[in-house]
What we know:
This protein has 272 residues and is an all-alpha fold.
Amino acid sequence: MKEFGRPAVVRIAVALLLIAAGIIYGISCDRDRPEHLYAQAIDAAASGNIEDAQHLYKIIIQRYPNSSVRKDALYQLGVLEYLYLNDYTTALEYFYDVVYTYPHYAHTFEAYMYIAQIYQEKQHLPQKAIEIYEKLLSSTKSGDNLKRLLPKLAFEYERVGNLVKAIDIYERLLKLYQTPPAGYLYEFAYVNYLAGHYGEAVRDFQKVGALYPQSQYDFSAQLATADCYEETGRSEDALSLLNGLKSQYPTETSIIGIKIDSIQKRIRNKKK
Length: 272
């Protein structure tokens, strides 16, 4: 058998080393791909390793600006900063980067909702939350998304005392349902009560009772109906309603009794 000469052996060894290096480099490159880094970050976050996930997301954002998963990394970073690290200012920066850089991204709506929620719940800036909700409302067509957006916007308008806008938004919300949820119907009636629209308020408080009898919302709606009667000079109707509630809600007789005593006191004072 013909033996290999030394040069041939060297060439073969070098070739094997290059092949091995290529394999290692390929594995290394595969591990450094942004998609792989993103999968690692998701796993880290799911395992509770928030700092590791944060680090991996930042690598993707900084090193791979054109990657298809950069927008996902930005969004997930915003979520981590908001929900886990409580850094609301930084969370806002990431969410704003998402909505301005990727307006058609699948999670752009969610990013806007997080922005408004931070303004609303963490920074106590209701007007800023309203601005974001209104901006989102102008481009939101999905019924499911509107069902999430409208109650938050209505609440913020109620919170800042803009009852006209709150009523308008609640009306839009209720039209999305064949049978409106008890909470939304009650809030709509209550905002009408606050605005002095007692007739409309009574109508919808009674609707709560008709649709959701014997519920906690029904009890609150009937108490509020009595308040509407009292506000419009129908004190006897208010007393009649409240006395009837005693047998319906025997565990709530204390608050019912307080309201009855208050109305009776006002009636006595008027007669003096």
